[in-house]
Structure formats: C-alpha cells, structure tokens
C-alpha cells in the first residue's frame, strides 16, 4: 500500500513505535506533506522531522511537515488540500 502525496496524521498515536516505520514508508512513497493534528502535535512533528533528517548525510530525504494542535481534523484536511507540495489534491487521513 502506498500513501497519498499528502498525509494528515491524527493523534493520539495508538502505538508510538509505529511512527518511525510510517515516516520511512512516507519517504519511500514520496509523500510531500505530513500535517500532524491533535494534542501533542508539536512534539510528534519534531520527532518526525528528526526521523526525516536522520544524521543529515542524505539530503534527498525531505518531507514538508506542519503541526496543528488547536485545529479540527476538517480544518487540517482542507489546509493539506490547498498546500502546494506535489500540486496534488489527494489527502489521506492516517491513524497509527
């Protein structure tokens, strides 16, 4: 299964151990945006950025990320739809 070009990651995570594999799958699938929504969104966003960057030696690893702690899922889905990366309208809501 491939992920859509734009992802809205809904918190809370049911299993935080899944986050790293999820991010690696997003890199593999060339996801352009991961927007994190819900309580603790900033922390999860920062963790995702750390996974993407890794040791910094691979500059091809890039995904635009954003966090939305005080917005509804609907608002973040709409944000993702109009966000520029990939020019795609396809947005996928993901729960881990």
Quick structural overview:
The chain is α/β, with parallel strands linked by helices and 96 residues long.
Write the layout of secondary structure elements.
Blueprint: E1 6-10, H1 19-28, E2 33-37, H2 41-53, E3 64-68, H3 73-82, E4 91-95
Parallel strand pairs: 1-2, 1-4, 2-3
Summarize the structure in words.
- This protein has one domain (about 5-95): 3-Layer(aba) Sandwich (Rossmann fold), CATH 3.40.50.
- Helix content is about 35%, strand content about 20%.
- The chain is built from 3 helices and 4 strands, in the order E-H-E-H-E-H-E.
- The chain has helices at about 20-30, 40-55, 75-80, and strands spanning about 5-10, 35, 65-70, 90-95.
- A 4-stranded parallel sheet has the order 3-2-1-4, with helices on both faces.
- The model has no long low-confidence stretch (mean pLDDT about 95).
Label this structure with key terms:
alpha/beta; Rossmann fold; four-stranded parallel sheet; 3 helices
What is the number of E strands? 4
Cα-based radius of gyration, to the nearest Å: 12 Å
CATH top-level class: Alpha Beta
Major β-sheet profile:
4 strands, parallel
**Class of secondary structure makeup:** alpha/beta
Low-confidence stretches: none
| Biggest sheet strand line-up | 3-2-1-4
Overall shape: it is: globular
Task: Name the helix and strand elements from N-terminus to C-terminus, one letter apiece.
Answer: EHEHEHE
Number of helices: 3
| Beta-strand fraction estimate | 15-25%
What is the rounded distance between the termini?
A: 15 Å
């Amino acid at each position: 299964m491939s992920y859509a070009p734009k992802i809205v990651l809904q918190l809370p995570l049911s299993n935080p151990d899944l986050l790293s594999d999820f991010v690696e799958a997003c890199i593999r699938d060339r996801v352009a945006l991961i927007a994190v929504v819900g309580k603790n969104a900033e922390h999860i966003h920062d963790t995702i950025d750390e996974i993407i960057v890794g040791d910094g030696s691979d500059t091809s690893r890039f995904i635009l990320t954003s966090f939305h702690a005080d917005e509804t899922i609907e608002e973040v889905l709409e944000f993702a739809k109009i966000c520029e990366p990939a020019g795609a309208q396809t947005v996928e809501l993901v729960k881990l």
